[in-house]
Amino acid sequence: MGISIKSTGMSVATATTSAIEHSARAARGAMRSAGVEPEQVDVLINTGVYRDSNLFEPAIAALIQREAGIGLEYPEGSNRSFSFDLMNGACGVLNAVQVATALLETDSAQYVLVVSGDTHPSLQRRRPAADFPFVTAGAAMLLEKTDTPSGFGPVHVAELDGTPATRGFANTAEMGVHGRSLVTVEREDGFEERLLEVAGVAAGKAIGAHEGGLDLSRAALISSRPTPGFPAALAARLGIAPEAVIGSGAVEGDAHTAALTAAYHQVDEAILAGYDTVLFVAAGAGPSAAATVYRLAPAA
């Protein structure tokens, strides 16, 4: 038995800068690809952090659920869909996998949809501030329980002491009447090195705990992308070959919470043919990191 990715979806269209709309488009794409109807999705988890107009109430997950057409009606005998926000920066998707695993393993849900995406609150068409480091995109991962051993292993986490490597906040003392369109994101000097350190710790835990040992020559790496060179630098630390690093060609820059799902969405069977597992690693903020090994289904 395993918790597997049934399908993924992605939205990078330039017609909107709404994280809600991007996440909903990605959710619809994932359901369409899997042939799953909206009423079959029992739980939607949103891991996005930076929101349209700095909106915090109601839960962004509920707005994405509505836009994706999930659980809008309750016919007699049908399951009711539930949604909620889970925010932990770049690690949020893997934290959502932890929650989804508990729901699916106990048969509390048939399908769990994990969505993610960030945007500058001003929603301007062009990047509104040079110091805002994240690109706008939406991604969705539809999870299910299967009878095969393929799927996610345990999620391992790590943290470093000290000040946060990245901070995002609304500066209420300075924003005045423009609070719905402004956000401040600060990254400390040398933040990439600290993120690499904590990512290496989390990844090492996941590698060491993998049942039967993990053959790194048969493992692909998908990591968050706080800087362009981060995935390659992480691979070098872990002893993973450069060609095993899988990025997202559809997103130029740091897609933040959407990065892991977006990268996996771009992968086709030919790319993964030479691998048995995918090592997912995310790092950010805290600085903290999360990592898990995803066992691929054997080729038919």
UniProtKB/TrEMBL annotation:
GO molecular function: 3-oxoacyl-[acyl-carrier-protein] synthase activity
Source organism superkingdom: Bacteria
Any GO BP annotation: fatty acid biosynthetic process
Residues covered by the Beta-ketoacyl-[acyl-carrier-protein] synthase III N-terminal domain: 84-153
InterPro entries: ACP_syn_III_N, Thiolase-like
Family matches, as Pfam families: ACP_syn_III
PANTHER family: 3-OXOACYL-[ACYL-CARRIER-PROTEIN] SYNTHASE 3, BETA-KETOACYL-[ACYL-CARRIER-PROTEIN] SYNTHASE III
Protein name: 3-oxoacyl-[acyl-carrier-protein] synthase-3
